[in-house]
Amino acid sequence: MSGKLFIIGLGPGDAAMLTPQAANALAQATDLVGYGPYVVRAPERVGQIRHISDNREELDRARHALEMAAAGRVVAVLSAGDAGVFGMASAVFEAIDKGEPAWRGLEVEVVAGVSAMFAAAARVGAFLGHDFCAISLSDNLKPWALVLQRLRVAAEAGFAMALYNPHSGARPWQLNAAFEVLREILPPATPVVFATAVSRADERVYITTLAEAESSRADMRTLVLVGTAETKLVERPGREPWVYAPRSVA
Amino acid sequence: MSGKLFIIGLGPGDAAMLTPQAANALAQATDLVGYGPYVVRAPERVGQIRHISDNREELDRARHALEMAAAGRVVAVLSAGDAGVFGMASAVFEAIDKGEPAWRGLEVEVVAGVSAMFAAAARVGAFLGHDFCAISLSDNLKPWALVLQRLRVAAEAGFAMALYNPHSGARPWQLNAAFEVLREILPPATPVVFATAVSRADERVYITTLAEAESSRADMRTLVLVGTAETKLVERPGREPWVYAPRSVA
Fold first, then answer.
1. How close B61 gets to chain A, by Cα (Å)?
2. What is the count of residue pairs from A and B with beta carbons less than 8 Å apart?
3. The model scores a pTM over 0.90
């Protein structure tokens, strides 16, 4: 029996944003592997086994999935958004790289999904419509000084930003420290968006400015978008403004 | 009659990567607006009108769509990938910003899609699995000096990159000039991927190094991914290697 490993991006949450390709891969799997809140999004199937793990054990989870695929199972490793964007895909290939030589012979398919940052940008208009970057604020796996350096150069060079992992229970000061660094470079009126649980029932989207941005708006399910000096607001009567990145830079 | 404007990301090409949400929006539209090769991807529907335009007339196309929505039509503006990533979303909001005040009262919904850069990254493994940026090489709407500056700072700061619009018929020297700048900063062995028409019948994915990268590999449907000094290859027996961004940076 030959196993297979799917690495699937489930999209931001709404089932209508799960691609048919991802749904088809989920239907083929004998085993689902992932963080609990993601695994429960998959439709229940008779005989399919769910392996739920803590969100921090990425490499262990990846190895477990690879062992099962090597034993002939059809395993789906699940991430929210796109699995290649601060999701499980890197962990799986790192586990292969450092693991059993036989794992290099496995069939592995990464199934791309709708990224949470683009769902967030779409909610407010076209926030990431020109050059942009994505930065994880977590310093679990890189030095905090490097996070700050990347924020600094991205702001100076005019990239809009999507900030992942903005909220850390262990280091709640980090997001405000990031805003402080950005305030040294970007205008006070630079638009900032806190996008929480986009496309889910408890979605919250809050548009503010860099001057007013405050970390208490973010929780573990929040993405923070930071604009540039070029980012524009389109005011609307009685509604939140649209926010977009102009296509041209003078 | 009240009109509506959808701005829809169709995904990279494979119909199995079109979300149910996007399919539903396409089904509601009375009018489809977009560049020909994108519009023909929508399923044919009796009574639905297709307005096909040249790829360069983004702002004219946006205004036309807005006029129809203001007249009560349900209009879908189509982009490949995600419409918010160098797609039509920015053009539509710019047209609103500079256009008729009444357009600010319109119902506008941006329907996020699977981005071509994540489909490309997924094909080779987890190329964009850590901090990354997206840069358009087109100098139609920004100075070429700014393009080069952004390439330089992104490479120096350790961002992986997705390069959009790498091929210009008018300025075929640009992509090689970009590689020259990157070679001054990144190691010769830095992985580079030319991903053309990903998920379509004529998909071509070519993995090389920055030292060997050559613009003739790119055409108008190509995305170029450039790694960092940290990007790793996982060699496989008899097959192309996987390429991934490690989750940790020392």
1. 14
2. 238
3. yes
